[in-house]
Amino acid sequence: MKGNSSSKETSKKKNASKSSSNFFLNIIIAVLSLLILFLGYALVFQIAKSFDNEEVTEQKIILPSQVQIEVLNGCGAAGIADRFTEFLRAEGFDVVNKGNYSSFDIDNTLVIDRSNNPDKANMVADAVGLEKKRIVKQFNNQYFLDVSLIIGKDYNTLLINK
């Protein structure tokens, strides 16, 4: 009988040992499962964030209708501000003001960036065929427009006349 009871005790010890090792294995499996879930969530979150950033990038595209322009005659040629206004509106720009500049002695046409958004000034310069070196930065919070176009005596060399 003694042999039988010692085998039962050994069997109980083995079962207890198996039970405790199973418990630790179950804990490790649970921790690893939680880690996998966390990493999966982080991956999905990063993918969703990258899609959001792509949408923001797409929203940065500026349309001509979003550019508010002031067209000023700086050369003194009759009706030149009207011609440029019609041309720019036909190109889709929002011309909000036209008139005469403070003087008629401007030799070279200028684009003045008033809103600190060089893309808008570049769009206007490209539309009229003006070199980028003719863009001047003159930010002013008092102006409620993006770009001023001052037409100089070189207006015959620009795109609207070709």
Summarize the structure.
With 162 residues, this protein is an alpha/beta fold. It has 3 helices and 5 strands; from the N terminus they run αβαββαββ.
Proportion of β residues? 15-25%
Roughly what percent helix? 40-55%
Nearest-angstrom radius of gyration?
37 Å
Q: Largest beta sheet: what is the strand line-up? A: 2-1-5-3-4
- Total helical elements: 3
Low-confidence stretches: none
| Estimated structural class | alpha/beta
Topology:
Elements lengths: L1 H58 L8 E6 L6 H11 L3 E7 L9 E4 L4 H11 L6 E3 L9 E5 L11
Parallel strand pairs: 1-2, 1-5, 3-4
Antiparallel strand pairs: 3-5
Structure explained in plain terms:
By secondary structure, the chain is an alpha/beta fold. It folds into two domains: 61 residues; 98 residues, 2-Layer Sandwich (Alpha-Beta Plaits), CATH 3.30.70.2390. The chain is 49% helix and 15% strand. The protein is built from three helices and five strands. Strands 2-1-5-3-4 form a five-stranded mixed sheet, with helices on one face. The radius of gyration is 37 Å and the shape is rod-shaped. The N and C termini lie far apart (117 Å). The model has no long low-confidence stretch (mean pLDDT 85).
